[in-house]
């Protein structure tokens, strides 16, 4: 197998500067919230939180950077999908400002987030605005992936980084899309294609030994099956490499979607790989998903992408679709019989388009028809 390791995976700061101040709504309680910026020795934001006895609001202030805009969110947890945006503040002249925030009376614990808006050079990911959808015939759930911006590739200092993971490139995903919650299973493949090419047999194991052309044919047949119910302007296809990494990271910038894990001590909770699965593929969705509900983005089987394999260009691009021609197609995610570092979010690999392999499958995207 040809294996050239991914070169990209730049730290997508889920929001640029993310600051979290947690407070408990008790009478007379005053909390000076230490921001993420303080802990990281940056200087943009410092939050003070005050609750007032008998009044249904709180006031908080922050050290303001006059050149920045801020967004304020409220949530019941620190998970980004729980955030509700309640205000967007313009650049301010004074170094310190306050904002009055109504208290949610039905909760005993709340979280407030102040997010410094990006300058275009860092990742910006919005919360999903669409709902999951299911392809009933396949019992295949498709997870919504929001439009947004991220840094594709890995920084020079990332552990086990390969040269082809750079130069890091700022990528805008201009439209939302959906991505399979898991790899396509053998049962799903048989429903559409009528046969099963897999070496490792099992209805809920990922289909493997499918070439790139086989995976594309599956998508085309599925488009024909679902032609009467497709969302206007969308079709089933393989994800582009940029879509795949964006969805894998789910707003993170670390080596894996769950963290950096420098010694790979946590990977077994999230992936099947050579360290915990040296013999065969495993049932899909048996490991912990990322924050966008996607399972097996690390490990189990490699996944075909739509693109030809090529070098990153650096700079900023929108909806990249890879080179216009090439010799091999991109595969991502690592596999059950591969080393731990091959499962990193930024790791890239490639494979011959017409050669089946028992550690290579795919997942489908419901994507805008024109991805440029």
Largest pleated sheet? 5 strands, antiparallel
Spatial extent as radius of gyration: 22 Å
Write down the overall geometry: globular
User: What is the helix tally?
Assistant: 4
Can you tell me the CATH superfamily of the largest domain? Answer: paralog of FGE (formylglycine-generating enzyme)
> In sequence order, what are the helices and strands, one letter per element?
EEHEEEEEEEEEEEEHHEHEEEEEE
Percent in helix? under 10%
CATH architecture label name of the largest domain:
Alpha-Beta Complex
Q: Number of domains in the coordinates?
A: 2
Main-sheet strand order equals: 10-11-14-21-15
The CATH topology assignment of the largest domain is paralog of FGE (formylglycine-generating enzyme)
CATH class identity of the largest domain: Alpha Beta
Distance between the termini: 29 Å
Helix/strand class: mainly beta
Strand-residue proportion: 25-35%
Spans where pLDDT lies below 50 across 5 or more residues: 1-47, 118-122
According to DSSP, the number of beta strands is 21
Look at the structure and give the mean pLDDT. Answer: 79
